[in-house]
Structure of LarA-like N-terminal domain-containing protein:
Amino acid sequence: MLKDFVLGLGDKEVSIALPEKQVIHVIEGKAVEAIADVPAAVKAAVTQPIGSPPLPKVVKAGDKVVIIASDITRQWISYPRFLPALLNELNQAGIPDSDIKLVVSLGSHRRHTDQENVQVYGEETVGRIQIVQSYAPAAEDFVYTGKTSRGVETYINKHVVNADKVIMTGGIIYHPMAGFGGGRKAIVPGVAGYSTIQGNHTFCLHEVIGQGVNPNCMSGKLEGNNMHEDMSEMAAMLKHTFLLNAVFTPTGQFARFVAGHPYTAWLEGCKTVEEIFGVPITAKADLVIASAGGFPKDINLYQGTKTTENAIMAVKDDGVIIALLECRDIMEPPDFSGWFNYESLYDREIALRKAFTVPGFIALKTGLMAKKVPHIIVTLPQNKEFMEKAGLIAVTTLEEAMAIAEQKLNRKDYTITVMPHAANTVPLLQG
């Protein structure tokens, strides 16, 4: 008995019929109802917080309040829909707009233009409060706050350190290095100095040179994740913080707001992310067929790696991955694609140890994963050369991919897991 599956590839859909008895899992996210009244949800979160007094008791008239907000690379957080509600809550608690400052948590990303501030935070917010940008290479903007137990000297933006109260905002999703985004990431890398960011990010690399990446720095893992634990220490150096983070539905709407204690409330949000996007599986499969879900999630390989990283969590060590990734903008972004010019994974790793970047880390991890488990990518014909340079097998049809996969598995009775929206769903192996 064959079962039909329809998978996204760019703007199109591709069909495949698979033997039903061989399909052990179809991994899909949980349907969740979106929040209808966002201002009411924000009010409820900040007045009934987790592990903290309510916001009106945390702040008092006369306080200078800083709101840390993510930059343009996190535009999906939809700040214009909830920042005005947060400002209104602060106003009601006795803090006028003139005493509120928004700090853009650029990390080491480039500065925003004025127009981009409007684009990311909305006209109302930009019109009401002062906005400053925390740009990691500007060393004069950062002050020393201490050293972590792992020896990383911590420098945090002076506007944040000097504020009476700090509200950390952001969105919680799975993160390929820190386990989960949001929470403490508003501080590091968000408003941290360059040397602090580099010191923290190097924990993602294996402690032994030549061994590649740290196996504990991965999606959904917090315990034993050195990067997460170190950035949590850094964030805890600030004693005057309050959290407001959003969790999203699979369609990108607000599913929940968590507020309160910067770690405890964030952890509750992580549990909600796991409930929505974490999918329990009972066994790994010989073959994983994964689609990002089509455009724009497969616009380039950098975005496409979210699909392959999740797929590898569902495949056996001696298995094969087929990923449907159109990648119409294959050379974007340049700070990712350029990393495949290194002749070997070792050279890529050494360069990364000298000057860590997240795109470089993703490029190294992609190469290491493809070396361990063959990755067959269904993509555009013009992407063949680039994919092969990245250590991937490029084909133009799903039929061709299946033929290569069967050849590599060398048998007909292989098990299959299908991931129709693999960019957003994380397999959680039980037991």
User: Anything to note?
Assistant: The mean pLDDT is 96. The radius of gyration is 22 Å. Residues 25 and 372 are 22 Å apart (CA to CA). The first strand starts at residue 2 and ends at 9.
